[in-house]
Amino acid sequence: MEERIYLSMLLSTYGSLLTEKQVNVMKLYYDDDLSMPEIAEINNTTRQAIHDLIKRCHKMLLGYEDKLKLVDKYNRNENIKKNLKDKLCILKSKISDENNAKLIDDIEKNINSL
Amino acid sequence: MEERIYLSMLLSTYGSLLTEKQVNVMKLYYDDDLSMPEIAEINNTTRQAIHDLIKRCHKMLLGYEDKLKLVDKYNRNENIKKNLKDKLCILKSKISDENNAKLIDDIEKNINSL
Protein backbone atom coordinates (compact mmCIF):
# COMPACT_ATOMS: atom_id res chain seq x y z
CA MET A 1 0.00 0.00 0.00
CA GLU A 2 1.22 3.50 -0.81
CA GLU A 3 2.58 5.19 2.33
CA ARG A 4 0.30 8.21 2.14
CA ILE A 5 -2.81 6.00 1.89
CA TYR A 6 -1.55 3.82 4.75
CA LEU A 7 -0.97 6.88 6.94
CA SER A 8 -4.49 8.12 6.11
CA MET A 9 -5.87 4.77 7.26
CA LEU A 10 -3.83 4.93 10.48
CA LEU A 11 -5.10 8.46 11.04
CA SER A 12 -8.77 7.54 10.59
CA THR A 13 -8.27 4.52 12.88
CA TYR A 14 -6.25 6.10 15.71
CA GLY A 15 -7.10 9.79 15.24
CA SER A 16 -9.23 9.71 18.39
CA LEU A 17 -6.04 9.06 20.40
CA LEU A 18 -4.44 12.28 19.11
CA THR A 19 -5.35 15.86 20.02
CA GLU A 20 -7.68 17.87 17.78
CA LYS A 21 -4.78 20.05 16.63
CA GLN A 22 -2.64 17.03 15.78
CA VAL A 23 -5.47 15.47 13.75
CA ASN A 24 -6.09 18.73 11.88
CA VAL A 25 -2.45 19.09 10.87
CA MET A 26 -2.12 15.41 9.90
CA LYS A 27 -5.28 15.59 7.76
CA LEU A 28 -4.03 18.68 5.96
CA TYR A 29 -0.76 16.88 5.23
CA TYR A 30 -1.90 13.32 4.46
CA ASP A 31 -5.50 13.75 3.24
CA ASP A 32 -5.46 17.21 1.64
CA ASP A 33 -1.88 16.97 0.41
CA LEU A 34 -0.86 20.44 1.60
CA SER A 35 2.85 21.25 2.00
CA MET A 36 4.44 21.93 5.40
CA PRO A 37 4.90 25.69 4.69
CA GLU A 38 1.21 25.92 3.71
CA ILE A 39 0.12 24.15 6.91
CA ALA A 40 2.49 26.36 8.94
CA GLU A 41 0.84 29.46 7.49
CA ILE A 42 -2.70 28.19 8.25
CA ASN A 43 -1.65 27.41 11.85
CA ASN A 44 0.30 30.63 12.26
CA THR A 45 3.47 28.74 13.18
CA THR A 46 6.81 27.70 11.66
CA ARG A 47 7.51 25.01 9.08
CA GLN A 48 9.82 23.38 11.66
CA ALA A 49 7.01 23.15 14.27
CA ILE A 50 4.73 21.48 11.71
CA HIS A 51 7.57 19.15 10.65
CA ASP A 52 8.12 18.11 14.28
CA LEU A 53 4.40 17.61 14.94
CA ILE A 54 3.96 15.44 11.82
CA LYS A 55 7.05 13.40 12.66
CA ARG A 56 5.87 12.85 16.26
CA CYS A 57 2.32 11.92 15.21
CA HIS A 58 3.63 9.64 12.46
CA LYS A 59 5.64 7.78 15.11
CA MET A 60 2.65 7.64 17.48
CA LEU A 61 0.33 6.24 14.77
CA LEU A 62 2.86 3.57 13.77
CA GLY A 63 3.30 2.75 17.47
CA TYR A 64 -0.45 2.27 17.98
CA GLU A 65 -0.66 0.04 14.89
CA ASP A 66 2.34 -1.96 16.07
CA LYS A 67 0.52 -2.62 19.35
CA LEU A 68 -3.16 -2.91 18.34
CA LYS A 69 -2.86 -3.92 14.64
CA LEU A 70 -6.33 -2.54 13.87
CA VAL A 71 -5.54 -1.53 10.27
CA ASP A 72 -4.00 -4.94 9.66
CA LYS A 73 -7.10 -6.66 11.09
CA TYR A 74 -9.38 -4.35 9.09
CA ASN A 75 -7.65 -5.25 5.81
CA ARG A 76 -7.72 -8.95 6.68
CA ASN A 77 -11.44 -8.80 7.55
CA GLU A 78 -12.29 -6.89 4.38
CA ASN A 79 -10.67 -9.70 2.35
CA ILE A 80 -12.62 -12.34 4.30
CA LYS A 81 -15.86 -10.39 3.80
CA LYS A 82 -15.22 -10.10 0.05
CA ASN A 83 -14.58 -13.85 -0.07
CA LEU A 84 -17.79 -14.47 1.90
CA LYS A 85 -19.85 -12.33 -0.44
CA ASP A 86 -18.39 -14.09 -3.49
CA LYS A 87 -19.40 -17.45 -2.02
CA LEU A 88 -22.91 -16.18 -1.19
CA CYS A 89 -23.22 -14.96 -4.77
CA ILE A 90 -22.34 -18.43 -6.08
CA LEU A 91 -24.79 -20.01 -3.63
CA LYS A 92 -27.56 -17.64 -4.69
CA SER A 93 -26.99 -18.44 -8.36
CA LYS A 94 -27.54 -22.12 -7.56
CA ILE A 95 -30.71 -21.67 -5.51
CA SER A 96 -34.15 -21.38 -7.08
CA ASP A 97 -36.33 -21.16 -3.94
CA GLU A 98 -37.34 -17.54 -3.37
CA ASN A 99 -37.41 -17.73 0.44
CA ASN A 100 -33.89 -19.16 0.54
CA ALA A 101 -32.71 -16.40 -1.81
CA LYS A 102 -34.19 -13.83 0.58
CA LEU A 103 -32.36 -15.48 3.47
CA ILE A 104 -29.10 -15.15 1.50
CA ASP A 105 -29.83 -11.44 0.93
CA ASP A 106 -30.35 -11.08 4.69
CA ILE A 107 -27.06 -12.84 5.37
CA GLU A 108 -25.27 -10.49 2.98
CA LYS A 109 -26.73 -7.45 4.76
CA ASN A 110 -25.46 -8.86 8.09
CA ILE A 111 -21.98 -9.29 6.61
CA ASN A 112 -21.99 -5.69 5.38
CA SER A 113 -22.78 -4.46 8.88
CA LEU A 114 -19.78 -6.30 10.38
CA MET B 1 -21.91 -6.93 32.10
CA GLU B 2 -20.28 -7.41 35.50
CA GLU B 3 -17.60 -4.75 36.06
CA ARG B 4 -14.82 -7.22 36.73
CA ILE B 5 -15.53 -9.10 33.48
CA TYR B 6 -15.76 -5.81 31.57
CA LEU B 7 -12.39 -4.69 32.97
CA SER B 8 -10.88 -8.04 31.98
CA MET B 9 -12.11 -7.49 28.42
CA LEU B 10 -10.70 -3.96 28.37
CA LEU B 11 -7.41 -5.32 29.66
CA SER B 12 -7.15 -8.03 27.01
CA THR B 13 -8.07 -5.48 24.32
CA TYR B 14 -5.86 -2.54 25.35
CA GLY B 15 -3.22 -4.31 27.46
CA SER B 16 -0.65 -3.76 24.71
CA LEU B 17 -0.91 -0.02 25.38
CA LEU B 18 0.08 -0.46 29.04
CA THR B 19 3.52 -1.36 30.41
CA GLU B 20 4.36 -4.96 31.29
CA LYS B 21 4.27 -4.15 35.01
CA GLN B 22 0.87 -2.45 34.72
CA VAL B 23 -0.57 -5.45 32.84
CA ASN B 24 0.82 -7.89 35.43
CA VAL B 25 -0.73 -6.03 38.35
CA MET B 26 -4.06 -5.56 36.58
CA LYS B 27 -4.21 -9.27 35.67
CA LEU B 28 -3.52 -10.27 39.27
CA TYR B 29 -6.32 -7.99 40.42
CA TYR B 30 -8.99 -8.48 37.72
CA ASP B 31 -8.27 -11.96 36.31
CA ASP B 32 -6.77 -13.78 39.32
CA ASP B 33 -8.88 -11.95 41.92
CA LEU B 34 -5.96 -11.26 44.29
CA SER B 35 -6.34 -8.54 46.93
CA MET B 36 -4.28 -5.32 46.85
CA PRO B 37 -2.16 -6.34 49.91
CA GLU B 38 -1.40 -9.68 48.22
CA ILE B 39 -0.37 -7.95 44.97
CA ALA B 40 1.71 -5.45 46.97
CA GLU B 41 3.59 -8.30 48.63
CA ILE B 42 4.29 -10.03 45.30
CA ASN B 43 5.60 -6.76 43.85
CA ASN B 44 7.54 -5.83 46.97
CA THR B 45 5.72 -2.51 47.29
CA THR B 46 2.94 -0.87 49.33
CA ARG B 47 -0.81 -1.42 49.12
CA GLN B 48 -1.16 2.30 48.35
CA ALA B 49 1.19 2.05 45.33
CA ILE B 50 -0.85 -0.87 43.95
CA HIS B 51 -4.10 1.00 44.62
CA ASP B 52 -2.80 4.03 42.70
CA LEU B 53 -1.53 1.90 39.80
CA ILE B 54 -4.87 0.06 39.47
CA LYS B 55 -6.83 3.31 39.66
CA ARG B 56 -4.62 4.94 37.00
CA CYS B 57 -4.78 1.92 34.67
CA HIS B 58 -8.53 1.58 35.18
CA LYS B 59 -8.91 5.21 34.04
CA MET B 60 -6.58 4.64 31.06
CA LEU B 61 -8.49 1.54 29.91
CA LEU B 62 -11.85 3.32 30.15
CA GLY B 63 -10.31 6.26 28.27
CA TYR B 64 -9.11 4.02 25.42
CA GLU B 65 -12.53 2.38 25.18
CA ASP B 66 -14.22 5.76 25.19
CA LYS B 67 -12.09 6.77 22.21
CA LEU B 68 -11.72 3.53 20.20
CA LYS B 69 -14.81 1.55 21.34
CA LEU B 70 -13.16 -1.77 20.45
CA VAL B 71 -14.90 -3.81 23.18
CA ASP B 72 -18.22 -2.29 22.18
CA LYS B 73 -17.57 -3.17 18.50
CA TYR B 74 -16.40 -6.65 19.48
CA ASN B 75 -19.62 -7.35 21.38
CA ARG B 76 -21.73 -5.94 18.54
CA ASN B 77 -19.87 -8.06 15.96
CA GLU B 78 -20.19 -11.21 18.06
CA ASN B 79 -23.98 -10.71 18.09
CA ILE B 80 -24.05 -10.18 14.31
CA LYS B 81 -21.90 -13.31 13.80
CA LYS B 82 -24.23 -15.36 16.01
CA ASN B 83 -27.19 -14.07 14.01
CA LEU B 84 -25.39 -14.92 10.74
CA LYS B 85 -24.63 -18.44 11.89
CA ASP B 86 -28.25 -18.97 12.97
CA LYS B 87 -29.42 -17.93 9.49
CA LEU B 88 -26.86 -20.18 7.80
CA CYS B 89 -28.11 -23.04 9.96
CA ILE B 90 -31.70 -22.43 8.80
CA LEU B 91 -30.51 -22.18 5.18
CA LYS B 92 -28.59 -25.44 5.47
CA SER B 93 -31.61 -27.24 6.90
CA LYS B 94 -33.58 -26.21 3.79
CA ILE B 95 -30.96 -27.25 1.23
CA SER B 96 -30.63 -30.79 -0.01
CA ASP B 97 -27.84 -30.36 -2.60
CA GLU B 98 -24.56 -31.60 -1.10
CA ASN B 99 -22.32 -29.10 -2.92
CA ASN B 100 -24.41 -26.18 -1.73
CA ALA B 101 -24.29 -27.53 1.84
CA LYS B 102 -20.49 -27.67 1.58
CA LEU B 103 -20.46 -24.07 0.38
CA ILE B 104 -22.48 -23.10 3.46
CA ASP B 105 -19.96 -24.90 5.69
CA ASP B 106 -17.20 -22.91 3.98
CA ILE B 107 -19.09 -19.67 4.56
CA GLU B 108 -19.47 -20.54 8.25
CA LYS B 109 -15.72 -21.16 8.55
CA ASN B 110 -15.07 -17.75 6.98
CA ILE B 111 -17.40 -16.11 9.50
CA ASN B 112 -15.60 -17.80 12.38
CA SER B 113 -12.28 -16.37 11.17
CA LEU B 114 -13.64 -12.81 11.19
TrEMBL record, chains A, B:
One matching Pfam family: UPF0122
InterPro entries: RNA_pol_sigma_r3/r4-like (IPR013324), UPF0122 (IPR007394), UPF0122_fam_protein (IPR054831), WH-like_DNA-bd_sf (IPR036388)
Source superkingdom: Bacteria
Function: Might take part in the signal recognition particle (SRP) pathway. This is inferred from the conservation of its genetic proximity to ftsY/ffh. May be a regulatory protein.
Family to which this protein belongs: Belongs to the UPF0122 family.
Protein name, UniProt field: UPF0122 protein CROST_023310
Species of provenance: Clostridium felsineum
